[in-house]
Design goal:
The complex is a heterodimer of chains A (343) and B (564). Chain A has a 6-stranded mixed beta sheet with strand order 7-8-9-3-10-11, sandwiched between helices. A 5-stranded antiparallel beta sheet of chain A has the order 2-1-4-5-6, with helices on one face. Chain A has a 4-stranded antiparallel beta sheet with strand order 12-14-19-13, with helices on both faces. Chain A has helices at residues 43-51, 97-107, 112-125, 141-153, 171-188, 199-205, 223-228, 232-238, 259-271; strands at residues 4-11, 20-27, 32-36, 58-63, 66-70, 73-74, 82-85, 159-163, 191-196, 208-213, 216-221, 243-248, 256-258, 276-281, 286-302, 307-313, 318-323, 332-337, 339-342. Helix content of chain A is 29%, strand content 34%. With 343 residues, chain A is an alpha+beta fold. By secondary structure, chain B is mainly α. Helix content of chain B is 73%, strand content 0%. The chains are: A alpha+beta (343), B mainly alpha (564). The interface between A and B is medium-sized, with 39 and 25 residues.
Chain lengths: 343, 564
C-alpha cells in the first residue's frame, strides 16, 4: 500500500470546458479522503480516472512509485488492485451474494477452502453470513450496500473508491451505513476516496476533505480545519449552513472576526473605506440581543428542537439564525454576531 | 517496478475494426456494388433501353398501385384492431392480438397459397363444403386486386404495431383531463386520441407501402401465373431468362425499388420524429373505453376479420394438404397424409430444402448472435465517433427490400472473388452471406436493447475485480443479456427459415430453401404438396412465436417485434 498521488490532472471531453482541470492531490496511505462538491463539479470524473475507467487528458496518477496513468497510457482497471462501491451498488443479479463477493477472488484464481474462507470472512465483516445464498434482488438497499462493501473487502485492495454510496438510502439507513464505513476503514486500512455532495457525510467520515467546484480543487484539509477556516466563497457556501455577507473589511486584518470587529465592519458600510469582503456567518453565532443589529424576521421554520430563522438586515442582506422561542415573521429583532470568518 | 500501460479502453483493440469489417463486408460492399453496376449501365446507355421498355413501366405501375391499395387495406384493418385492442374493453385481447400478429411471421408465399386454396374453382375447402365455383371460372386472386388485397392482409399487423405503440404512448392524464372537461368518449377519440396518434398511423402506412413494394412471395404466387409482374417478380423473371445486359438491367430495377423504399422510409421517419409524448405525462394503456352494448358487435367483427384473414385460409391450406390427390374432393373418408409422407420421406427436393433451410437458419442465427454481441458491445460501450456510421451501415440492408439485397449479392458474387479466385455463386454460401446481411439488424436489435438496459457499473465492477474482456463477457455480460440473445436467435431463425425473397434469386439445384421449395411445388402444379409443406411451416412459426411470447416477460421492451 502506498500514497495515492494525482498530479495536474486534466480531463477534457472536448465540450469547450474541461471537466477537471489542474487537479493535484495526495491521499496519504490509509487516509480517508472525501471529495466534496456540488453535482457536476467533476468529482465523479476524478474518481473514475483513479479507477481507470477514464483516461486523463493530461497529468498523471501514481500509487506510490507505480504510474497508473500518464502521457504514455494507463493501467487498465482490472490490473489496479482497487475496489469500488458504486452508487447503484453494481451487484450482478445472476449471482448469489456469496458469488458476488467471491468474484474478485475467483478471477484471481482462488478456489476451494481458501476461497470459501475469505468469502465467509468478508461476509462476516458486514454481518451478512445468513444471506450468502440469496440473490441481490432479495435484499434491502442497506444489505445490498453491505454486499458491495464485502466485495471490496475480500481482496485487500490498495485503494477503495466510493461513489456517492449513500445517495440511494434513506436517512435512518445512512447513519447506520456511515458507522459501517468507518468500521470498514479501520479494519481494512485501505486508502479510501469517497465522493459525495453531502457535506455532513464528508465531515462525519473522512480524515481529509477535498472541496471541488467546476472542475477545480478549492481546498484540502481535515474536516475540523475546513469547517473552521474555509477558503473562498464556494467552500464557505458548501460547508456548514452559514450566510455569506458582503462587508467592507481590511484585507490585512485577521480573518476571524469577533463582535466588535463585525460592528466596525457594519459601521464601515456607510463610509466604504475598505474593499468589500465575503464574511461567513454561521447560524449558531447569531444571537438575539437588544444591543445588536436591527433585523426583520423573513421566515421561520420549526425544526423540532428549535426554530430556524431567516433574517433580513437593514441593507437587504440575509442572515440565518436559530431561536428556542417561537418568533413571528416580520417581527423586528436585534442580533449580535459573536464570531465570523472572512472567506 | 515495471508498469504495463495500455490505451484506456474497455474493449480489445481488434473489436471495433472487426465489427466494422463485418458490417462493411456484409452491408456496405454489396450495396456499393449495386450502385456501381447501376451507374455503369446508365453510362453505357442501357438505361435508355429500360426506360423505353413498356414491361418495366407496367411492372412499376403494378408495384405502386398494388402497394398503394394494399396500404389502404392495411390501414383500415390495422387501425381497427389497434384502436379496439388498445383502447376498448375487448375480451380475449391476448389471443386476438397474438393471432392477428401471426401473419407477420408467416411467409407471404404461404399466405398467398392459403388464399388461393380458399377461393377459386379448385379450392378443396370450397369443394368439401360444396361451395366451389364451376370449373373453368377464373381464380379471382390472380389479379392486381388480389395482390393488393393480400398485401393489405399481410401488412395490416405492421400498421397495427406502429399505431398501437403511438396509442400506448398517449398521455393518459391528457385523456383524463379531456374527460373531466366534459368530453364524451367519442369526442375524446376524435379530439385527442386520433390527432395524437396520426403520426403513428402515417408511419404504419408508410411501412405497409414499402413492404408491399418489396414483397416477392405474393406477386410471385398470384401474379406470375396471370403474367402480372411487379418490380420484384420482374427482376426474378429477367434474371431467370438471363439475357445480355441482365446485370445492368436488374441493378437499375432494384435501384428503382430501393428509391421507392427509401422514400417511404423517410416519410415514416419524418412522421415519427419527436413524437414521444411519454415525457409530457403519464402514459399507459389504461385509457379504456367502455363499449357497452356495442362490445359484442365489435368483438364479433374482430373475430370475423380474423376468421377471414387467418383461420379460413389456414383451414383451406390444411384441407388442400389432406386431399389424396390434387383435384379430388376432401371428405373424412378420403383424407390422407400422403402429401406429408411425400414431402417428408419421398421427395429428395423437399428433404434437401428442409436440411438447407435448417442449416441456413441455424448458422445465420448463431453466427449473428456472436456478431450481434460483439457489435452491440462495440456500439454501446465504445465512445467511437464512427459508431453512428456503423449502426447506419447495419440498418440499411434491413430497411431495404430483400430483393434489392439479393440482387446486390448476385452482382458481387457472380464473378469469382478477387484474390482467392473462388466463386460462391450457386452455392449455399451466397445465400448464407445474403442472410447475414439482411438479418444482421434483426438479430442485433434485441441484443442492443439489452445492452442499453445494462447498468455500465455492472461491467465496471467486474473490471475492478480484475476480470479482463473475455472473462467479463463470459461471466457477466452474456449471462445478463441471455434472454434477449435467446430471443434474437429465435427471431433470426424464424425469419431466415421461412425466407423466400432472397433465396429465390440466389438458389440453384441442391441449394433450394423451404421458401423456394414451396414456390416451386406450387409452380409445377403440386398444390397439395406445397400446401402440406406450408402447413408445417405455419406450425413451426406458431410454435416459435408462442415460445417467444412466453419468454417476453423476461425480455427488455421492444425485443419481441409483435409486442409493445
Amino acid at each position: 500500500m502506498a500514497k495515492l498521488i494525482l498530479r495536474e490532472l486534466l480531463k477534457d471531453y472536448g465540450t469547450g470546458k474541461p471537466a477537471v482541470s489542474d487537479l493535484s492531490l495526495e491521499v496519504r496511505e490509509g487516509g480517508f479522503l472525501a471529495l466534496l462538491g456540488p453535482s457536476g463539479c467533476g468529482k465523479t470524473t476524478v474518481l473514475r480516472m483513479i479507477a481507470g475507467f477514464e483516461a486523463p487528458s493530461g497529468g498523471s496518477i501514481l500509487l506510490g512509485e507505480r504510474l497508473l496513468a500518464g502521457a504514455s497510457g494507463i493501467v487498465p482497471p482490472e490490473r489496479r488492485n482497487m475496489a469500488m462501491v458504486f452508487q447503484s451498488y453494481a451487484l450482478w443479479p445472476h449471482m448469489s451474494v456469496a458469488d458476488n463477493v467471491g468474484y474478485p477472488l475467483k478471477v484471481r484464481g482462488f478456489s476451494g477452502e481458501r476461497y470459501r474462507e475469505k468469502v465467509y470472512e468478508a461476509l462476516a465483516a458486514v454481518r451478512l453470513e445468513p444471506y450468502a445464498d440469496r440473490r441481490p434482488a432479495d435484499l434491502s438497499g442497506g444489505q445490498r450496500q453491505r454486499v458491495a462493501l464485502a466485495r471490496c473487502l475480500v481482496t485487500d485492495p490498495d485503494v477503495v473508491l466510493l461513489d456517492e454510496p449513500l445517495a440511494n438510502l434513506d436517512r435512518h439507513l445512512r447513519q447506520e451505513m456511515e458507522e459501517t464505513f468507518r468500521e470498514f476503514h479501520a479494519r481494512s486500512g485501505a486508502t479510501m476516496v469517497y465522493v459525495t455532495h453531502d457535506q455532513s457525510e464528508a465531515m462525519a467520515l473522512a480524515t481529509d476533505v477535498a472541496v471541488m467546484s467546476e472542475g477545480r480543487l478549492l481546498q484540502v484539509a481535515s474536516p475540523a480545519e475546513i469547517y473552521a477556516r474555509p477558503e473562498g466563497r464556494p467552500v464557505g457556501s458548501l460547508i456548514g449552513q452559514g450566510a455569506i455577507l458582503s462587508l467592507p473589511y481590511d484585507p490585512g486584518a485577521p480573518r476571524a472576526l469577533d463582535w466588535p470587529a463585525m460592528k466596525a465592519a457594519f459601521a464601515a458600510l456607510q463610509t466604504d473605506q475598505h474593499p468589500r469582503a465575503d464574511i461567513l456567518v454561521r447560524p449558531q453565532d447569531v444571537h438575539i440581543d437588544t444591543d445588536g443589529l436591527a433585523v426583520t424576521v423573513e421566515s421561520v421554520t420549526f425544526e423540532g428542537e428549535r426554530y430556524a430563522l431567516r433574517l433580513r438586515l437593514a441593507d437587504g442582506q440575509m442572515l440565518r439564525s436559530h431561536s428556542c422561542a417561537p418568533v413571528r415573521p416580520q417581527e423586528r429583532l436585534n442580533v449580535v454576531i459573536r464570531s465570523s470568518w472572512r472567506l | 517496478m515495471p508498469v504495463l500501460l495500455v490505451k484506456a479502453n474497455s474493449q480489445p483493440r481488434w473489436l471495433f475494426p472487426f465489427v466494422t469489417a463485418v458490417a462493411f463486408t456484409f452491408c456496405a460492399v454489396p450495396l456499393l456494388r449495386l450502385l456501381q453496376a447501376g451507374l455503369a449501365s446508365i453510362v453505357k446507355g442501357d438505361a435508355a433501353r429500360i426506360v423505353l421498355d413498356p414491361g418495366v413501366w407496367t411492372a412499376a405501375y403494378n408495384s405502386l398501385s398494388t402497394s398503394f391499395l394494399g396500404m389502404i387495406v392495411s390501414v383500415l384493418i390495422g387501425s381497427f384492431f389497434a384502436l379496439a385492442l388498445t383502447l376498448a374493453d375487448i375480451r380475449g385481447k391476448w389471443l386476438l392480438s397474438f393471432l392477428f400478429m401471426l401473419p407477420t411471421m408467416i411467409p407471404p408465399q404461404v399466405t398467398a397459397l392459403s388464399w388461393v386454396g380458399m377461393s377459386g374453382p379448385s379450392s378443396p375447402l370450397l369443394k368439401a363444403l360444396g361451395l366451389a365455383p364451376p370449373l373453368g371460372s377464373p381464380q379471382p386472386l390472380y389479379s392486381t386486386a388480389g395482390i393488393a388485397l393480400l398485401f393489405g392482409v399481410q401488412h395490416a399487423p405492421l400498421v397495427y404495431l406502429t399505431l398501437r405503440a403511438g396509442l400506448l404512448a398517449l398521455p393518459r392524464d391528457g385523456i383524463e383531463a379531456a374527460r373531466l372537461s366534459g368530453a364524451s368518449s367519442m369526442r375524446v377519440l376524435t379530439d385527442i386520441i386520433l390527432p395524437l396518434s396520426l403520426p403513428g398511423l402515417i408511419a404504419g402506412a408508410a411501412i405497409a407501402f414499402v413492404s408491399g413494394i418489396g414483397n416477392f412471395g405474393i406477386p410471385a404466387i398470384l401474379g406470375i401465373p396471370a403474367s402480372i409482374y411487379t418490380l420484384p417478380t420482374l427482376i426474378y423473371s429477367r434474371l431467370a431468362s438471363f439475357g445480355s445486359g441482365t446485370f445492368g438491367e436488374i441493378a437499375i430495377l432494384s435501384g428503382m425499388i430501393a428509391v421507392i423504399a427509401v422514400g417511404g422510409i423517410s416519410i415514416q421517419e419524418r412522421a415519427l420524429r419527436g413524437r414521444d409524448y411519454r415525457v409530457i405525462g403519464l402514459s399507459g394503456g389504461a385509457a379504456t373505453f367502455r363499449l357497452g352494448v356495442l362490445r359484442p358487435f365489435v368483438e364479433a367483427a374482430l373475430w370475423l376479420l380474423l376468421f377471414i384473414m387467418l383461420i379460413a385460409p389456414f383451414l383451406a391450406l390444411l384441407a388442400a394438404s389432406l386431399v389424396p390427390a390434387y383435384g379430388v374432393g376432401l371428405s373424412f373418408k378420403s383424407a390422407s397424409f400422403s402429401a406429408y409422407e411425400e414431402i417428408l420421406f419421398r421427395q429428395t427436393v423437399t428433404r434437401t430444402a428442409f436440411s438447407n433451410s435448417l442449416f441456413l437458419a441455424t448458422t445465420t442465427s448463431l453466427g449473428l448472435l456472436v456478431i450481434g454481441v460483439l457489435t452491440a458491445y462495440a456500439l454501446t460501450r465504445g465512445m467511437n465517433r464512427f459508431a453512428a456510421l456503423l449502426s447506419v451501415m447495419i440498418e440499411i440492408p434491413y430497411a431495404l427490400p430483400g430483393i434489392v439485397i439479393s440482387v446486390a449479392f448476385v452482382l458481387v458474387f457472380a464473378a469469382p472473388m478477387p484474390v482467392i479466385g473462388v466463386t460462391i455463386y450457386g452455392t449455399i454460401w451466397i445465400i448464407l452471406a445474403a442472410y447475414f446481411s439482411s438479418f444482421l439488424a434483426v438479430g442485433l436489435k434485441p441484443i442492443i436493447s439489452a445492452f442499453r438496459q445494462l447498468d455500465p457499473a455492472l461491467e465496471e465492477s467486474a473490471r475492478l475485480s480484475g476480470a479482463g474482456f473475455y472473462r467479463r463477457l463470459a461471466d457477466i455480460i452474456v449471462p445478463l443479456i441471455a434472454p434477449a440473445a435467446g430471443a434474437s436467435v429465435i427471431l433470426v431463425f424464424l425469419i431466415s427459415c421461412n425466407e423466400l425473397t432472397v433465396s429465390a434469386l440466389l438458389w440453384s439445384v441442391g441449394t433450394q430453401t423451404l421458401g423456394v421449395a414451396i414456390y416451386n411445388l406450387d409452380d409445377s402444379g403440386s398444390y397439395d404438396l406445397a400446401a402440406a409443406l406450408s402447413v408445417l411451416v405455419v406450425a413451426m412459426v406458431a410454435t416459435l412465436m408462442l415460445l417467444l411470447e412466453f419468454m417476453a416477460i423476461r425480455l427488455p421492451r421492444g425485443v419481441v417485434p409483435w409486442r409493445n
